[in-house]
What does this fold into?
Amino acid sequence: MTRSILLVRHGQASFGKSDYDQLSELGRTQSRLLGQFLSTRDITPDRIVSGSLNRQRQTAAGICVAAGWVTPTDVDDVWNELDHVEVINAFKPAYKNMLVLKADMVRTLRPRAAFEDMFTQAIARWASGEHDDEYAESFAAFDTRVRTAMTSLLEHDAECTMVISSVGLISWIIARLLVREPWDRDVRDPERPSTNDLAIENIWRATSMAGYNTGLTRLVLDKEGLPQLLTYNEVGHLPEAKLITAR
It folds into this structure.
């Protein structure tokens, strides 16, 4: 049987609330619908892994209950999302006050687009490597963490593994896969062609901004055990447009 990996982005979290790291009611519904969908496709992972963030663990629990799976979930913080709050605050310290951030976004009359523009700039600053001392986790350290997480999956002998993580990690994995970057080559490797750097950055930006909550990404492992992208960001389990969210 062909080995496979399912990468799932967590359900909608509580954006704009005092505790972001909790699923919203819609996020719980999204998780339940994904579990029901997978159960009708006769998909039963023999290994389930989740990051340790509340929104990730809650999504995993919702999927498993709805699907009727009894497989225990391994919790591993290597699958946690990048710290978007730290990335934003380092970019503009005034945004430590959520009211200031919201006011700035609303003032543009296009708050969602303005937030995405700002976040893109904040991510670019973080990824540049020029301000590493301002972050608890540098971009290079993030890359190492993702590569370590993915290598661990590939070394496991499970036939079907499901991972509940976040869009930053999933899209970084996809970007590396599409550019065919070896998992043992880090983001600062001087031997990597500059064209690869640009391609990975562009793919990562595009896929992360297009990632939907509980979007399902499927990988299959070839005969050499290397992952190949089958699908990205499936949302067929969400039957109505109002159920499809990116934030």
